[in-house]
Amino acid sequence: MAYVIGVDLGTSGTKTVLFDEKGTVIASATVEYPLYQPKNGYAEQEPTDWYNAAVSTIKTVLSKSGVNAADIAGLGISGQMHGLVMLDENNEVIRRSIIWCDQRTEKEVEEMNEKLGREKLIEITANPALTGWTAAKILWVRNNEPENYAKCRHILLPKDYVRFMLTGDYATEVSDASGMQLLDVPHRCWSKEVCDALDIDMAMLPKVYESCEVTGTISKAAAELTGLKEGTIVVGGAGDNAAAAVGTGVVTDGKAFTTIGTSGVVFAHTSNISIDPKGRVHTCCAAVPGAWHIMGVTQAAGLSLRWFRDNFCGDEISTAKLMDVDTYEIMTAEAQTVPIGSERLLYLPYLMGERTPHLDPNARGMFFGLSAIHTKKHLLRAVMEGVSYSLRDCVEICREMGINVSDMMACGGGGTSPLWRQMLADLYGCPVKTAASKEGPALGVAILAMVGAGIYKSVPEACAAIVKVDKTQQPIAENIPEYEKFYKLYTKIYPSVKENCAELAAL
User: Fold this and answer.
1) What distances in angstroms separate CA 413 from CA 16, 101, 141, 260, 306, one per listed residue?
2) Which of 278, 326, 379, 439 is the most buried (most CB within 10 A)?
3) CB atoms within 10 A of CB 204
């Protein structure tokens, strides 16, 4: 029996999981680390914290499992995307990493648009210039910390810094590199045109691989620290969402997943590249060679329900404690007593502005249609429905772009709710399933390692053998036209108040 390791480098911590070749979890370990916010809108982390967490968790899973290091066929790393790691000529970290949620680069986004133009950026990188992505962060360091920029010899993404420390290789892979805004996404290579326009030396960028390709092997020094065998292969791995796609089997046309976490994501696989000229969704290289994915994001998905819980559900929180159950279970039971449409009450989940489909930081949430008939449970169901309508917006753009979405997986905390999954199935008009494994990104990069090690011939073949479905929610035929009536009205509300939201922001 061969074994593989999946390392999932997140924002709050790193989780490492040891799997056998059938995808069964043998052992797992997690180490957390801090987030630094030196100013409002800033977000930074120490790259050495990520590496130390990876070393510690790899060592722990090997120790807990008792598996011989010689039986570890390979390792893959999943990572938080868009973070900037800068190394000097001695491979020392120059400054803390500016990570994905940092928003300091508004002026640099303007600079990118001036130097290349919004349309050209979308044509090459498949996405508009974005504050959270890596290229703008590189420009920010150059503009604000020229002494640090002058020292820089290598630019890496978070997971690729850990890879470098484990193997000594400067490498990345197409899915994570897509989020740097320096990659020619249609051609899966660095864009000389973008780098030249932004005056970024391409020699600082790592070699780009496909996600299941071998990028290097565990060094002697890393083997001594982790307990792994020197020479163990390390594959490209993937950005967090691309890794989650592999871990849930979203690796062939027609397949997609919806994540309801703090934010919401609709992620669809496609064999043919498709770019939204309006920049409403992201197009990136998939972790499957020769394929891409489309990703729509709603900013406040699970956040909307948590906001409602924390501010209006004190009784439910108290009852849940007495009953020793999750508060969301009680909230869901209340929402189920309300009919579709919440008796003509609609909720727009724009608590944090919005990305898909409006791409408007001034968008704000609202209840529409509130009357004296409505109670807390009506508002509760309206929140869940409003989030579902927002996710349907993402699916609609995918379909508008010619992407087949007919087989949907549900992930994240919200995906555990049968009611929420049923709403999605009825609104999408397709089955909504959950995966038997909850390991998501860690399983995804472990599967990539299995392909790199030759245990399976391809990513789709590996997923067909490993990824199993747990629960399936089929659309309920009579529900579909009911939801459709309310969804059509929902899509009209925000365009009607967009100018008012801008006025409100200016007050």
Assistant:
1) 20, 20, 36, 6, 11
2) 439
3) 16
Catalytic residue among 49, 184, 240, 393: 240
Q: Judging by beta carbons within 10 Å of its beta carbon (0-12, 13-18, 19+), is residue 500 exposed, middle or buried?
A: exposed
Give the whole-angstrom CA distance, residue 354 versus residue 83.
22
How long a stretch of residues is the chain?
507
Mean pLDDT of 241-256: 96
Provide the residue type at 119 as one letter: E
Q: How many CB atoms lie within 10 A of CB 367?
A: 16
pTM of the model: 0.91
Identify whether the C-beta of residue 425 lies closer than 8 Å to the C-beta of residue 270. Answer: no
Closest by Cα among 345, 73, 387 to 228: 73
pLDDT level of residue 413 (50, 70, 90 thresholds): confident
Question: Is 240 part of the annotated catalytic residue set?
Answer: yes
Give the model confidence (pLDDT) of 374-407 as tens digits.
999 999 999 999 999 999 999 999 999 999 999 9
- Rounded-to-integer distance, Cα 258 and Cα 424, Å: 9
Integer Cα distance of 153 and 146 in angstroms: 13
Question: Which residue's structure tokens are 């020619």?
Answer: 184
- What is the distance between the alpha carbons of residues 31 and 60, in angstroms, rounded to a whole number? 10
**Rounded Cα distance, 226 and 160, in Å:** 17
CA distance 114 to 173: 28
Sequence-distant (≥ 6) Cβ neighbours of residue 375 within 8 angstroms: none
